[in-house]
Design brief:
It is built from 9 helices and 16 strands. The protein is an alpha/beta fold and 412 residues long. It starts with a helix and ends in a 7-residue tail after the last helix.
C-alpha cells in the first residue's frame, strides 16, 4: 500500500487523471452502443443510426489432418537375421510345388490369369449389404473421431491410449463369386477375403477353376466394419487375437451367403481358406489359428503381425507380434498351410508408437522363421521394389499363390 501511495504521489494531477478520462470515454461509448442496439427494431438498425456489425461466430475447428506415414526404408533381403532365401530371376514367382523362402522382383508384370479372358466362363457375382443390426457377434461397432489417433502410454510404450473411440453403427458390403462350374446343392470349397469386394481375386479364381488348377470354389469377399487400426471397427475385427472374427464370418456372414447366392458351403476345414492384406492378413491367420476346426489354409499379403491390438489384452500384450514371439513356438503344430509375403518397402513405424513391434518386414521375416522352426508347410516371398499391400505384386503372384495354397487336398 505504501509503495502504491508513493507511486501516486509522484504523478502530477494531469497524469493520474488520464486513465480516468479514458475509462469514462470507454463507458460512454459502450452506453451509446447499448442504447442504439436496444432502440433498434427487430430485423434492422434504427433509421439514421450506424449499424453495429455482429461479432463473427467462430468457425468450428477443422479436424486435424492425419499425420502422413513416414517413408519406409528399403530393406535388403540378405540382412543379418533374415531367413535364407532363394533369389529368383526377375519376373518369376515360386512354383506351386515349392516350399520355403524366396526373393522376387524388382519388376512385377501382372499374371495373365488375373485378367479377364474370352475363353473363361465369368461366373456370377452376388452383392449384398450387412449392418450391425444383422449381427449377433458385432451388434454394435466402434469408430475413432475423425482426424484422431491416440498417444502412447507413458508408463508402457507398448500400449496406446485411445480416448476418441466411441460406439458407432457399421455397414459393409459382401460380394460372392459363384463359378459357372458350381453344381447346385453341392457343398463347395470356399475362400474368405478381407477388405472386400475383391474383383482381382474373383477374376483369378474364374481362370484357375477353368484351367483346373484349383478346385471349383466360392469366393467370398467381406468388407470391413470401417476405419483402421486402434479404436476402429476394422481394427477390432482384424487385429484382435481371438476367435471372434471367425465366429462373425461363421454366424453372421456364411448363412447369408448361402441364402442369397443359392449355394451350399462345405464344413470341411481342409476345403476352407482365408486371405487378406495388412490387418486383413493378420485376421486371416487368426481365423485359422483360433478356429482351426474351421480353416486350414491362409494367404497373407503384407501381414500386420505387429502390436496393433486394441483394447490391449494382458494375455497377448504385443498383439499379433506374439505369434512369432512365442505363440507359434509354444503351441503344438496345427494343420495350417500358410502363404505369406512382404515388400522391401513395407511399413516401418507408421505411427507414434515406438515399442520395437511396428516393423512389418521384421514381423513377416520372423513369421517365416517361426513357421519353419515348427515344421509348418509355408511359402514366403520377400519382394523387391514393393510397398505395403502392393497391388502390382498381388497381380503378379496371386495365381501361383492360390495354386500353392490348395495343394495338397488334405493337410496333416
Amino acid at each position: 500500500m505504501l509503495a502504491a501511495v508513493e507511486l501516486l504521489g509522484r504523478w502530477s494531477l494531469s497524469e493520474w487523471r488520464r486513465p480516468l478520462i479514458a475509462a469514462r470515454r470507454f463507458l460512454l461509448a459502450g452506453a451509446c452502443t447499448a442504447s442504439a442496439i436496444l432502440a433498434a427494431p427487430s430485423g434492422g438498425a434504427p433509421a439514421g443510426a450506424a449499424q453495429v456489425p455482429a461479432a463473427p461466430v467462430p468457425a468450428a475447428p477443422a479436424p486435424a489432418a492425419p499425420t502422413p506415414r513416414p517413408t519406409p526404408p528399403t530393406r535388403d533381403p540378405h540382412t543379418a537375421g533374415f531367413v535364407e532365401a532363394v533369389e529368383l530371376a526377375d519376373g518369376t514367382v515360386p512354383p506351386p510345388d515349392a516350399h520355403g523362402n524366396f526373393i522376387l522382383g524388382p519388376t512385377h508384370a501382372p499374371a495373365p490369369e488375373t485378367q479377364a479372358q474370352d475363353d473363361v466362363p465369368k461366373g456370377t457375382v452376388h452383392e449384398f449389404v450387412l449392418s450391425a443390426a444383422d449381427s449377433a457377434v458385432y451388434p454394435t461397432g466402434i469408430a475413432r473421431d475423425p482426424g484422431t489417433f491416440g498417444t502412447p502410454d507413458p508408463a508402457d510404450p507398448a500400449k496406446l491410449i485411445v480416448s476418441t473411440s466411441r460406439p458407432a453403427p457399421w455397414t459393409r458390403k459382401v460380394a460372392v463369386f459363384v463359378p459357372s462350374q458350381y453344381a447346385p446343392d453341392t457343398a463347395a470349397p470356399f475362400i474368405v477375403a478381407a477388405d472386400g469386394p475383391d474383383p482381382l481375386l474373383f477374376t483369378t479364381l474364374a481362370t484357375l477353376i477353368a484351367k483346373r488348377r484349383i478346385p471349383v470354389m466360392i469366393g467370398i469377399a467381406v468388407g470391413n466394419g470401417g476405419g483402421d487400426a486402434q479404436g476402429s471397427q476394422r481394427g477390432l475385427e482384424y487385429d484382435t487375437l481371438s476367435p471372434r472374427y471367425a465366429e462373425f464370418i461363421e454366424k453372421d456372414v456364411l448363412p447369408q451367403v448361402e441364402r442369397r447366392a443359392g449355394v451350399r458351403l462345405t464344413r470341411d476345414p481342409d476345403l476352407r481358406a482365408t486371405t487378406g492384406c495388412s490387418s486383413g492378413a493378420a485376421a486371416a491367420f487368426t481365423m485359422a489359428w483360433y478356429r482351426n476346426d474351421l480353416y486350414h489354409r491362409v494367404l497373407s499379403y503384407s501381414g500386420t503381425y505387429v502390436n496393433q491390438q486394441w483394447p490391449p489384452d494382458p494375455e497377448t500384450p504385443g498383439g499379433a507380434w506374439e505369434y512369432h514371439k512365442r505363440i507359434l513356438a509354444g503351441s503344438p503344430r496345427k494343420p495350417i498351410r500358410v502363404w505369406l509375403h512382404v515388400g522391401d518397402r513395407d511399413l516401418f513405424n507408421p505411427n507414434s508408437m515406438r515399442d520395437g513391434m511396428h516393423d512389418w518386414v521384421e514381423a513377416n521375416e520372423r513369421m517365416a522363421q517361426a513357421l519353419a522352426a515348427k515344421g509348418y508347410a509355408y511359402q514366403f516371398s520377400f519382394v523387391r521394389n514393393a510397398s505395403h499391400c502392393d497391388r502390382a505384386v498381388k497381380a503378379q503372384t496371386l495365381p501361383a499363390a492360390l495354386e500353392w495354397l490348395w495343394r495338397p487336398s488334405r493337410i496333416q
